[in-house]
Amino acid sequence: MTASIESRHLWKSAKAHGITRRRFLALLSAGGAAAVLAACGDWSASDKAATPALEQGQPVSSEEKSAWFKDTATFIRHEDKGLEAHLENMQGLITPRHLFFVRNNSVSVDIDASQWRLAIEGDAVANPMQLSYDRIRNLPSRTVVSYLECAGNHRAMFDLVNGQAAKGTQWMTGAIGNAEWTGVSLRDVLTLAGITDDATSVLLIGQDTESPEGGFRRVVPVDKAMHPDTLLAYALNGDVLPKDHGYPLRALLPGWVGSSSIKWLGRIEVSYADIWTRNNTTSYVLIGDDYPAQGEAQGEVVTTQNIKSALALPWPAKLTVGSHRIHGYAHSPNGSIASVEWSDDSGSAWHSATILEPQVQYSWARFEFAWNAQSGEHTIMTRATDTQGNTQPDAIPFNEKGYLFNQPLPHPVTVF
After folding, report:
1. CA distance 370 to 361
2. Is this structure's pTM higher than 0.85?
3. What is the DSSP letter of 275?
4. Which domain holds residue 201?
5. Separation of CA 320 from chain center
6. How many domains does the chain have?
């Protein structure tokens, strides 16, 4: 058996035993095939005794046993693709870096910024170029406070609330965070490369090569790409961008679904023609009876987010009898939050919550209200409205992949 074939068989076995790609490579480097097989439980006790402690189930570093670099203890872990935050752990407007959710399409990537380059190319740029990390850091900077939310946030609610399960990671309410992002305007970089007047599509490609298509990618229309607040970000909350969040450089598209904000960005292709990829034809597309095909896409392509609200409580929540100040978060891609209402009687009566200052463009808004908790089982619902008049709907059509669920959530609360 050749080394390459042996490695493929080892990886297949390791994957079947729940071993991440990062840990597999660490095991292979540390002890070869014996280490991998030991970790899989495929060797006898005597065989295991001959392998290093690392491969015998002893504590290992978080990097070796995890698909992520950050401590995962405070998150809901969705296999090796997602770390869901607990909204109840968040108190302020800005989400701390260590509490910020992660959505990957492979394991997080470790990139040496000194060797990294960003390529800008395509048939709609006059001056194709490569930019170093230092060159980008020396361009005029821009800071935006913006929420970032996975398109599938609240996906589990299609089943829990409407009784029809959607495909994909069963996110509850924590695939979202709100942060200060610093970087350069994508517009400035495209201008450096001589973007032409007939450009229509900008393809952002990541360096997470284990992702589908050999690097996760999304197409952005040129008007969104040229908006001054569409960033190539290198800092999160005033510090260098963490590896799990796209170091050394990621895109940040305020108001758009998180998959558009490509992490570990390595290449930008600009074209005068429409670009079709997996992520605007079969994935990140609303597929269902209410969504007709668009061009080569099977349904409506998912781009902007929609208005939502959620309580910062565990699901389900447990509270003691008495008065409680309940808080939560609301956000919309189309404007500031004008009002949030709450109901504890299945929507028969709605009451006004207090929206807390400050309200910042692209940011989520905090709200709170006092609730007199009586013993028993309850549900609390919230409903947000933005300054453009958009309100969370009572019901939304089903889509197969569970994107953009934004009905008011019947949050279960037990009072004792």
Report:
1. 27
2. no
3. -
4. 97-301
5. 34
6. 3
